[in-house]
Design a protein that fits this description.
By secondary structure, the chain is mostly helical. 59% of the residues lie in helices and 5% in strands.
Length: 87
C-alpha cells in the first residue's frame, strides 16, 4: 500500500479490480490508519523505508518520533552520538 504500482501491473490487474479492492473493509481500515499518521518528512521516510539515517536531519526525525517503532527509537538514540550518515 505504500508503494505505487507500475503501469504494467495496473493494466494486468485492471482498474475495476483496484476500485473493488478499495471498498474492502480491511483495506479501508489500513488506509485510515496510514492517513492518521500524517505525511512523513523525507528524512523520516528514508529512515523507516530504507533504514537510512542522516544525522544532519536528526531534529526532523525526532519531530516525528511517534511514527517510529521501539527498535527504531533505540537505534536513533544510540546512533545520534555519531556525526555521520548511518545505515
Amino acid at each position: 500500500m505504500t508503494y505505487l504500482f507500475s503501469n504494467d501491473l495496473l493494466n494486468v490487474i485492471g482498474k475495476k479490480t483496484i476500485l473493488d479492492l478499495e471498498q474492502i473493509e480491511s483495506f479501508l481500515s489500513i488506509k485510515n490508519e496510514i492517513l492518521k499518521m500524517g505525511k512523513h518528512k523525507p528524512a523520516v521516510n528514508d529512515f523507516i523505508m530504507i533504514n537510512l539515517l542522516d544525522l544532519d536531519k536528526i531534529n526532523e526525525i525526532y519531530s516525528q518520533k511517534h511514527l517510529l517503532n521501539e527498535f527504531q527509537l533505540k537505534f536513533l538514540e544510540i546512533t545520534s552520538c555519531f556525526r555521520k550518515i548511518t545505515e
